[in-house]
Amino acid sequence: MTVDGDHPVDGPGGAVGGGPPGPSAVPHVPRNAAAARAVVAGLLDARSKEPGAAHLADTTLADALLVTSELVTNAFRHGGGLTGFTAEVSAEGLLLTVSDASREVPSVTVHGPGSDLVGGYGWPLVHRLSSRLTVTPYPGGKRIAVLIVL
Amino acid sequence: MAGSDLRVVTETGPGGVVVIRVHGGLDGWSGCSELSDALVVAAGNSAGRTVVDLSGVGFADSAGLHALLRGLRAHGETGALLMLAGPLSAGVHRLFEVTGTLGAFRFVKDVEAAFTP
Questions:
Q1: pTM here?
Q2: Which CATH class is domain B6-115?
Q3: Which residue, among B45, B60, B33, B31, has the nearest Cα to B19 in the 3D structure?
Q4: Residues 12-41 of A with CB under 8 A from B
Q5: What average pLDDT does the segment A105-129 reach?
């Protein structure tokens, strides 16, 4: 089962530290991280109610929502806008794909001595919670695919 | 689950302790800077003690964590004590756990516990 968001696009609030405004509306993508989390939460909730479905641990749901939130936020803040979003449950687990308008691959901030220790937790968090993570650049953007074992 | 309905309310509790109550979701859309700003102001409070009530936070991602870390740094600079009060939702606890920041903060089970020496 694959679920696509279907809301207009709206960038992160500027008060947070300068998130860029969203690009012109891209159809069929969540308009912000909360909308994307709602898609994933709904998908996992529906799956947990299927006959014979295994119980979904609170931490697994939390992990899925954290990864979703970080990826979608990154797409808006650093990727020139969210251009695609899918969430799918398979035998492997939850597969998320998040596409944005930048070919630049995310990098991990290295905290050196005396550096500002505030910040840089988002992308390492995605790495930590994903069983598989691929970044595929393509003309005009990139697609990040992550697997979270349920 | 909407991330845009964040409410940050600063109160003064017993002994002049600053209590910052947070309701809603903490993410990149919900104005985490509001929380960050409230924490920086609170760091200068005369009681030298601030409690952030996170019991009303259903979700937080790294944007929320960054706001709390900024507040922690501001408290470190003034020598004030910052405490995070639960009970924490599973998702919020998980954020601290997976980022390895559980040890960076002082947690209390609820706001009342923060007033107990």
A1: 0.85
A2: alpha beta
A3: B45
A4: 12-13, 15-17, 19, 32-34, 37-38, 41
A5: 70
